[in-house]
Amino acid sequence: MRPRQAWESIDLGFAMARKWFLPLWTLWLCSALPVMIVLALLPLPLWLAGLLLWWFKPLYEPALLYWLSRRLFAETTSIKTLYRSGFKIVLPRLVANLTWGRLNPSRSFVMPVALLEGLKGHHRSSRIGVLSRGTHAAGWLTLVGLHFEIILELGFILLIISLIPQEMLWIDWHSYIFDPDPLSEWLHHGCALLAMSIVAPFYVSGGFALYLNRRSQLEAWDLEIGLRNMAQRHQRRRLMGAASLLLAASLTIIGVQPGTATALEMDSQESRDLISEILADDSFGRYQERGHWKFIGEESEQDDNNWLIEWLQRVLGGFGTSMAFYAELIMWLAAAGVLAYLLHWFLQNRSLLQGRGESQRNSNRHIPTQVAGLDLRPESLPADPATEAASLIQAGDYRGGFSLLYRAALSVLVHDHAIQIVEGATEGECLRRVRGEIADETSAYFSKLTGMWQQIAYGHIRPPEEKALLLCRDWHGFFGVSSAQ
Fold this sequence. Notes:
- By secondary structure, the chain is mainly α.
- Among the domains are: 6-223, no CATH class; 367-478, Up-down Bundle (Four Helix Bundle (Hemerythrin (Met), subunit A)).
- The protein contains 22 helices and 2 strands.
- A two-stranded antiparallel sheet has the order 1-2.
- A hairpin with a 2-residue loop joins strand 1 (370-371) and strand 2 (374-375).
């Protein structure tokens, strides 16, 4: 057991279904066939009997889940034992499963909560909410399983009809779809039952594997298993150490002949032969020769009648080369002239461009008027926030002083440094937005100011007065006075 992605967990469930398909398939048929026989004996329309057979699926699936939950932990449960405790397996949430919960797309995923954990009511709903958080694979498993049932059902019908000789075929496709006779309807229901029986083991196993994966993620089963393995290895090492001590004591008592130890050693040549034999296996690598195409140029075919082309090339070659040179020179001179003109124009109009870019950025940027309930408008701040904050702190109003100091710092950051801060941002989010946008020293000061403000505002912890006043004196060196004021 280890943490898996949701789709990987479904693969694990499908592997379990393939390994134990026969007992799971038998269990499902032993539950569904009696229901089908009862529906056939009742005076019901055949279409209604088929619909009820499909609707009663929650009656057939709990036995598969109960058997899987035991078999996964090496406990074999016989069919007789299952049906002795059949009511205990089927009854949990039976009414809900056959009414409002029948169309729940996560049925296979939530079924273990009631059947294996035995939870009811509010506890069950809370448990399902925790398990289902962040996973939607169970709904996709239901949707894909339904499509596979339809495909298998149609495939079985086509197979049976294609095997019937044309002389014995009693119905055509138009009559089968729009006006089926009882034999055609029973053929349809029988193929539907067979398709459902094949898909059901994979559907139940996939949902159970998703449930196990969520349990292992929430309860750290992989860590528990790893700790148990470590404990077992430690116990084995202790036993091996004790056995080694006993063996050494025995050899010391009975005495060991000098030739005994050398007989246990392997000759160097034998060692090399054994190593070569092991490395020759495909598991340790193999030799492979690969080739690739390499371009070596096109084949040149000499034409004996190309004297006219060669003469024209000799006559016009010099003239064409000189024309190309002068044309290239003119192009480079023109490009240099254009670049020089653009550079001169930029130097002459640099201030205009800067003012326009800054005004455009400010017009496009949304400047908040308050953040976390603090008014950031420059007109709401005093001319010297640091001095005013120091006066409030000396008067004993630490909360008012630090509120003013922190509010003024945020106002400078928003208006002067153009830092994007949303109105609902917390102190921690403001600090994360500031880091990397301003100088490291200013960022460190703002971090210290934020910490003190949080201690006073939420923890009601006053810092020493000297430390608070020092923070006020240093405020001008990092924020000064806002240009917006």
